[in-house]
Amino acid sequence: MCLAIPARVAELQENDTAMVELGGVRKQISLALVDGVSVGDYVIVHVGYALNRLDPDEAAKTLALFAEIGEGIAPEFLTPSASSE
Amino acid sequence: MKYIDEFRDGQLAQKLAADIRREARSDRAYGLMEFCGGHTHAIFRYGVQGLLPDNINMIHGPGCPVCVLPIGRVDSAIELAYRPNVILCTYGDMLRVPGSNRVSLLKAKAGGADVRMIYSSADALKIAQENPDKQVVFFAIGFETTTPPTAVAILQAATMDLANFSVFSNHVLTPAAISAIMGSGEARVDGVVGPAHVSTVIGSRPYELFAEQYHMPVVIAGFEPLDVMQAILMLVRQLNEGRAEVENEFSRAVTRDGNLKAQAMVAEVFELRKTFEWRGLGWVPDSGLQIREKYVAYDAEKRFELPYQSVADHPACECSAIIRGVKKPLDCKVFGTVCTPDNPIGSCMVSSEGACAAYYTYGRYKESR
């Protein structure tokens, strides 16, 4: 129920609703819980409602953080130990 | 797909796992509770536990809305569905949760009750408009993520003066559940992976209290595998350094204050219940929400004078202990034998966010401990 993924707003419609796109699938959702959404924004959709807008700058920061990970790691750490299954 | 694929990169996951193995101290254990069922699902789906060292133990928390609803509330919904002239609408997972005598809403539907699976609270409003001669009841469950959509539906019903629509509210609060788990001290929790979508609504501020009160590090994480692994790394670092702070890995969607518009709508429609019964946690004070007097016309509990009776879990089912993080699915003697996703005995086997369903679906029969 809580599993939801970011969807791109493809079209704003009447009555505070929007058409979103998820990998080619289009769905109508409600924008009643968010303000100031524009076409092209990414929103987190949950049970048919946008819960909030995704912040592209913060997403870029998190990805940049990931890119720095694992630099200069000794080889013994790069394979999971056999017993960890 | 943007904002999804980048957070599922396998090579990065290997590097993150290597970082976690490098930083986890071999002279101690780390008990990390992922509160939310969405994280439980991600951990199993992507095999995260298998990438972690043996001394990091993921404990599955009570954050699965279907799992924590007690049998008595399911029974009330079934009783309501059988009443003449009622159409009962609810989210898909709720249809399969067994109530007393293994009767579920799906069986009630097969027995002639008008039960309808909906995707959104807006669908229930639409059904009410299309069936003016029927009483349409929305059986509403869930944490802070599903509560705002229920509030919107009630506000819209009030605007439209929709007399044949009401809500059977079973909405519950995440902080109360975390407090109950921490307060009981049963599960050995050193750090918490904080919920993703719940936090988009309530923000990161409510967790600051536990971090301080229980000296407990909390890292709010997104639902993708790299998010979960990064949160684990951040928790390991906090524990190694003796810190107990609220950190936000999911900053692309979560702020400190959360979604104020959604919070205002919830506050307009709902108020705290004195106490609410949870499966696994029992009666927890100030942990559930009821509809305010102002909107009593839309409160199904009042409209239909619904009685409530506590019902004990099936004696063979360990859902309660699993929800509290005290036992694992493999400790339950009916897991995977009598109890399967096709034939669930307990609620943790119903929803994809339930620990038992996750173990069963992703074949995790061996564990690191």
UniProtKB/TrEMBL annotation, chain A:
It holds the Pfam family HupF_HypC. Gene3D superfamilies: 2.30.30.140. It comes from the Bacteria. One of its GO terms (molecular function) is carbon dioxide binding. SUPFAM superfamilies: HupF/HypC-like (SSF159127). GO terms for biological process: protein maturation. Belongs to the HupF/HypC family. This is Hydrogenase expression/formation protein (HUPF/HYPC).
UniProtKB/TrEMBL annotation, chain B:
GO terms for biological process: protein maturation. One of its GO terms (molecular function) is 4 iron, 4 sulfur cluster binding. Gene3D superfamilies: 6.10.20.100, HypD, alpha/beta domain 2. Pfam families: HypD. Keywords: Iron, Metal-binding. PANTHER family: HYDROGENASE MATURATION FACTOR HYPD (PTHR30149:SF0), HYDROGENASE PROTEIN ASSEMBLY PROTEIN HYPD (PTHR30149). Belongs to the HypD family. This is Hydrogenase maturation factor. It comes from Sulfuricella denitrificans (strain DSM 22764 / NBRC 105220 / skB26).
